[in-house]
Structures are given as structure tokens and as C-alpha cells.
TrEMBL record:
Function: GTPase that plays an essential role in the late steps of ribosome biogenesis.
Record carries keyword Nucleotide-binding: yes
Phylogenetic placement of the source organism: Bacteria, Pseudomonadati, Pseudomonadota, Betaproteobacteria, Burkholderiales
UniProt name for this protein: GTPase Der
InterPro entries the record matches: G_ENGA, GTP-bd, GTPase_Der, KH_dom-like, KH_dom-like_a/b, P-loop_NTPase, Small_GTP-bd
Top-level taxon: Bacteria
SUPFAM superfamilies the record matches: P-loop containing nucleoside triphosphate hydrolases
Amino acid sequence: MKPVIALVGRPNVGKSTLFNRLTGTRDAIVADFAGLTRDRHYGNGRVGAREFIVIDTGGFEPTAESGIYREMAKQTRQAVAESDVVIFVVDARAGLSAQDHDIANYLRRLGKPTLLVANKAEGMQQGLQLVEFFELGLGEVLPVSSAHGQGVRSMVETALDLLPPPPEDAEDPDGADDGVIRLAVAGRPNVGKSTLINAWLGEERLVAFDMPGTTRDAITVPFEREGRRFELVDTAGLRRKGRVFEAIEKFSVVKTLQAIERAHVVVLLLDATQGVTDQDAHIAGYILESGRAVVLAMNKWDAVDSYQREQVERQMENRLSFLKFAPLHLISAKKRQGLGPLWKSIAQAHASAMRKMPTPQLTRLLQESVAFQAPPKTGMYRSKMRYAHQGGMNPPVIVIHGNSLEQVPEVYRRFLEGRFRKAFNLIGTPLRIEFRTASNPFDE
């Protein structure tokens, strides 16, 4: 399971800039004034072969008793509770403050692995300026510059080294050597995830209640169907940012993201009575980013009329168009309608995610595709594709070798993806295509 790193500190010390640097995104809004971030932001990061989940938090005021700062402090406490290691960010240029002392006292009482980082340290003599931060009693101070990337890699490596090494017999998150298919059911609160799993099991195994947030954790249930073993994972509903306030839900988001990461197949459950929302698209985007096979299930289809069904179909086209490869099923978990075809698609999606594609077949298909439609010419050169081979499974990865491949446009990548999908019958799984240009031996 990916370790979780929480970024904590007072306002305007550069936590969001550091978050964007670690995740390689611009998901966190950055500006030169305090208090811009108020909710928790989650993102994936990687240093070398080590992956992790990073949480950006708002300015932390542990002693705040009312107003928005109290809610921001509550969000930060939840992020710290979810994390495996805390990176406490201070401002090397502004120096030590009373608020830094309050945060340090709070972190010391928790006893969680903590790394003290002095941000905005570019161009500074890293001696006398950082001495005052030793007053916080959190050990060594690491100078970094999140804006310029200085010291960030070593900072993450040091933070991850604070954690115990994973056990040698840890489960391979991408493999299926044990023969068990991990099936996660994800979606917004109150769309019927627990009801669906109960319908599969034929018993009231999970608490299902008509109130958002009934499930507080990711729950795993063993299940066997037609000779195949499954692990059914009922995840807590992913709420919109700013809506996760209750302390009892503090582990829900991270455990849901980790359940998606560990799954072989994810059933994204939608609610026909509420339509396809932006939050549904957000969850779908995370599943796609994780590379998991996905099947869409529109629940409560029996509870909507013809006009609502037309609206839902239009919303599917507009908001989930990037999941066109995923089969869609119209079901009623409460009445157990449409569950048989759903299982068939789950099996197809898992088989597609684990599909083995021989190199000769891939290369022949690549050459046929280029003969049918050559890549467009860019400038003086045209990309030349020579051969292809499989680079991984779950999700399937196809690596194409040739010359000048960095100029291949996205539209041609999608053309190749469609040809490969049709030839290998890839249903319900993302397909990643990587281009690798051969090095020129005469460059030097």
C-alpha cells in the first residue's frame, strides 16, 4: 500500500507549491497570500520507484476555536491522522513564529514520524539562518526550495526512510498470483455501494441505510462465484472537497484511494436519481489515473422516468466521455436487477487488464496500422515506427520503438489505441501507449 505524507504548517509557507512539485501537477492553487488553501488536497507522487500519496492542507492554527480557521484546523488534524509521516513546513525567510511552536507542540504530542522542512531557502547560507528552528525540538532541519525544486527529492527520500520497510511477504498490488480478483465498489456517498455488495452476497453483510456516509471505512469481504475467488471491497463514499468534516470519517478518503490502487477491477457506481455529477467525474478520473480496469453501473435505474433517463444519458456523454472503453450497465441493486450482465463485464475487464500480447502480433498490427494511415508529417520529418512490444499489465502498456516519435500527435495515439483495442478485444481497461525514440549514434 502506498505510504501517505501530509504537508502541515502555518499559512503561506509554501505547502501548496510543494504539493504541486511532489505530484507534478497544478492541482493546488498557489498565490502570494495567506489562507488560500482551506480543504485537503490529495495527489499521487513518485520518487524513483517509490510511490506515495501526498496531502496538502490549509494553514494550521491548533488553538483556533471558531470560524473558518477552526474548520481548517479540523481538516489538518484529519490529514495528520490519515498520514504515515508528517512534513512540517516552516518559512526559512520569515523565521520562527509562535504559531510554529504551537504546531510543533501538537505534533510532538502525537508522536507520529515528523520531518521538519525549511522552505524558501534558495540562495541562503544554510547555517545560522536555520539554527532558530532547532527550538521546535523536532530534530534536524532540511532546507528546501519548493519553487525551484532544490532539496525536494532528498526531502521525500528522508521522509519515506522514517517509515518501517514493507514486509517481505507484502501482497503485490498489481499481481494476481494468489488467484483472487480484488473488486472495489467506488462512488459518491449514498449511491448504493453496500446494497450492491449485499445483493451479490445474498445477505445483509454490510450496513445499508438511506443516509450518506453510513460506510466509514473500506471493508473487504471474500466471495466466490462460478469457481473464481474475489475480494469485494466496499469503499466509503468520496465526498466533495470541503464536505469531509466529521472526525469519524478521517480515514475514509485515503482508504478509498488505496482500495482503488490495490484493486484489479473497480465498479464505479452512479445514482440515476441524482445524475452524473462533477464528483463522479472526479472519482472516474482518479480510477483512470490509477490505471485500474473499470465497469460503470448506473444504480436506481428503476426509480427514474423516461425524461430523467434521457438527461442521465446526456450527462454520461458530456462528463464521462473519457471512459468510453468502460461498459455501462443499468441496474437496481435493491431489486437485484441487471446484476448478471454486470458480472460478465467485470470478468471481461479483468481478463483485458491481464491480457498478454505477443510481440510479433503487436508489431504486425503496428505495421498494418501505419500502412493504413501513416503518422502525419511534422516539419521536415515523419515519425517512423519500427516495432512494438508489451511493457506491462494492469493496465496493459504497449511500447512502440522508432525514430522521431516525440512528434506523434495525440490524435494518432488515439487511432493506434483504437486499432489495438479492437484486435485484442480490450474491454473496460485503460490502455497506455509509450513511444521510445532510438538514440542517434552520430549525436556526438
